[in-house]
């Protein structure tokens, strides 16, 4: 049996992406308000908001090793954020339509992004510093 534990409702529009952190009691969400929110589910609150995308956010994921979040957006970009410093550390451009999803490779310094421009792009992120 499943039981609802809580509801988090600080987004100003539909929420499209969500991901739990593998070690910390946090999750990340993104939505149509152009905001990425990082929540502490044990404290039951939003701990900070990341701003930078210029359109709907489609997906949000944590990196498996580094304090990074990846997000994809209808602004045709992928952003990588350091969630500890709360800064955008990379903006990946090149798609010419909405970027529906972006994901870190589970063991290599790679990112994959998928877009309505009918392409999947693979990005080498080995030049980023943790």
Automatic annotation (TrEMBL):
Keyword set, alphabetical order: Repeat, WD repeat
Biological process, per Gene Ontology: endoplasmic reticulum to Golgi vesicle-mediated transport; intra-Golgi vesicle-mediated transport; intracellular protein transport; retrograde vesicle-mediated transport, Golgi to endoplasmic reticulum
Location in the cell: Cytoplasmic vesicle, COPI-coated vesicle membrane
Keyword Transmembrane helix belongs to the record: no
Membrane topology: Peripheral membrane protein
Gene3D superfamilies hit by this protein: YVTN repeat-like/Quinoprotein amine dehydrogenase
InterPro entries: Coatomer_complex_subunit, WD40/YVTN_repeat-like_dom_sf, WD40_PAC1, WD40_repeat_CS, WD40_repeat_dom_sf, WD40_rpt
Protein name per its UniProtKB record: WD domain, G-beta repeat protein
WD repeat residue numbers: 8-49, 50-91, 92-130
Protein's UniProt keywords contain Repeat: yes
GO cellular component, one term: COPI vesicle coat
């Amino acid at each position: 049996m499943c039981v609802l534990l809580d509801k988090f409702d600080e987004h100003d529009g539909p929420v499209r992406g969500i991901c739990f952190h593998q070690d910390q009691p946090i999750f990340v969400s993104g939505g149509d308000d152009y905001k990425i929110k990082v929540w502490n589910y044990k404290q039951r609150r939003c701990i900070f908001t990341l701003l930078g995308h210029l359109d709907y956010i489609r997906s949000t994921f944590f990196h498996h090793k580094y304090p990074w979040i990846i997000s994809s957006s209808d602004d045709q970009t992928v952003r990588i954020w350091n969630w500890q410093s709360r800064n955008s550390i990379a903006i990946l451009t090149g798609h010419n339509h909405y970027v529906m999803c972006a994901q870190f490779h589970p063991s290599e310094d790679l990112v994959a992004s998928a877009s309505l421009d009918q392409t999947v792009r693979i990005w080498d992120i080995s030049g980023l510093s943790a």
